[in-house]
Design brief:
- The chain is of the alpha/beta class.
- The protein has nine helices and 16 strands.
- The strands form four sheets. The protein has a six-stranded mixed β-sheet with strand order 1-2-7-8-5-6.
- α8 (238-246) runs parallel beside α9 (260-269).
- The longest helix has 14 residues, at 122-135.
- It starts with a strand and ends with a strand.
Amino acid sequence: MYAGRGGGRFSIRCEGGYALARTPQSVALTQVLEWDDGAVRRKEDYLAAEEPLEIRVGEQPLSVTMRTPGHDLELAAGFLFTEGIVEKRAQILDLEENAGENAANRANAVRARLAPEAMPDFSKIRRHFFAASSCGICGKASIDAVRSRALAPLSDAFRIGAEALIGMPAALRESQAVFGRTGGLHAAALFSAAGELLALREDIGRHNAVDKVIGWALLDGRVPLASAVLMVSGRGGFEIAQKSIVAGIPVLACVSAPSSLAVQLARELRQTLIGFLRGRRFVIYAGEERIARN
């Protein structure tokens, strides 16, 4: 049974007892040949693991995403929420790990049981996620789709100081345990207005890292995240901006550049969007009123 800060309860099941099932690891070890200024040597090196995760609703497959194993229940919960399958935590009645159909893929599947009103139209959902994976998202139609959802307004009262912002990249990097070993993962982190790190998740896919950290907040009863900053280790694309707005996050900060569509979405839906947050410099692309200058 999972009980979050919001007081609601639902069950999370982790099935065991499968002798042939393996547990996917977030890091893999491999042999490499290193060339260093003419000197060559064999050594062991760490790789960020990448494996498919199938998210199922009941017995129906909903989506497959390539992810770094770890925090799979949070990833599934975050995906269901940010993609609009569920509107609130209470609609996720049950999350089950090790839900694959055979021993080879058992550990790479999560099954969700949803409230009746949240059950999706699978014919439409399959087409949507197939299109999103193959040809990306379509500008104006996607923004209209986000706007049409019953989203909580982003907090107009939230403010954060510049000094709190510039301390976030170092805090994020120091907490990236798997990145420190592999150099190959994205991170998404939630911070308070004082710059306190609330949660951090890593994944080979930046959108998965965002879903994991939002899933953590959803399961812990913290959504909407009206008093939080989301920071991502790479660029800020439309999909990340969309997911953060769904979660009610008023400020999105990126180490690299945002995309044009992310900027357009942030300006239309009144989110503060920050790019190139490095050292003692950052660029505000939208929502400058939330940044305290002093």
